[in-house]
Structures are given as C-alpha cells and as structure tokens.
Amino acid sequence: MSILNRITAWLSAAFAPPPAHDHGAQRALEPEAxxxxxxxxxxxxxxxxxxxxxxxxxxxxxxxxxxWALFKCPCGCESxxxxxxxxxxxxxxxxxxxxxxRPMLYPSxxxxxxxxxxxxxxxxxxxWCYDTGTxxxxxxxx
Length: 142
Ligand SMILES: [Zn+2]
Prior knowledge:
It contains two helices and nine strands, in the order ααβββββββββ.
C-alpha cells in the first residue's frame, strides 16, 4: 500500500461522513453556496504562500498525522490561512473529508487580523457568518 493510499485510508476511516439526512431540511429551503474547495490536497510539507492555489485546501501530514490545514482566504484577500489540526494546540480544528471528497472544518474560521473573515467550511462550500469582517474580540457575547 503506498503512503498516499494509507493516508487516504486513514483520512476516510478517521473522518466518517455524516449521515445523509444531516442538513437535509436546510438544503431544501435555501440554495447551497457554490463549491469552493473541491478536494483535500495532502502534502508532506506546507507549500510556500506563492504556491498556495486559491480554491485548494492543503492538509500537511507528517508521520501519518494531520498537522496543519492551509488555504488562501476565500474572501479573495490573498492571505494564506493556516490552522493547526493538532489537539495539543489551542485553538485547533478538525478537518474531515465528506463522502463527496470535499473538506469540512470544525469549528468555524474567524481571522483575527487582515480581513477578519468569519466562515465555516462545509462540504467544500463557504458559509459566511453574519459577523464576518468584525474582530472576534468584538463579538457581543464575550
Ligand atoms: Zn480574507
């Protein structure tokens, strides 16, 4: 089994897709956002900022463990967003692969610099939060 197959198998096993009925009611009511990330690109080391392609979501794996998720900010500001996938880090995110092969990130991403974008990545689609563009520390309930 090649290393890539093993990584793919690991990702599939670790991140079982949610049941098909999840979000079904919501999907029927409002049109879905277009797909922004079509796949997860597994890499051994992070691509340089200049090699980070918009619409690509990279998962940096070392020693068979996911370490980082990287992607160009979906708002178009050209910043590269880097998220830790390592549970010992605070904060950290969980990257899962849906049965369509697209990425899902939990929790939401809220940039505390630059564009201050706040969004979810769900099945490769960007769901913008109503408070995107405001600083996380200015949220009403802190
Ligand atoms: Zn941005």
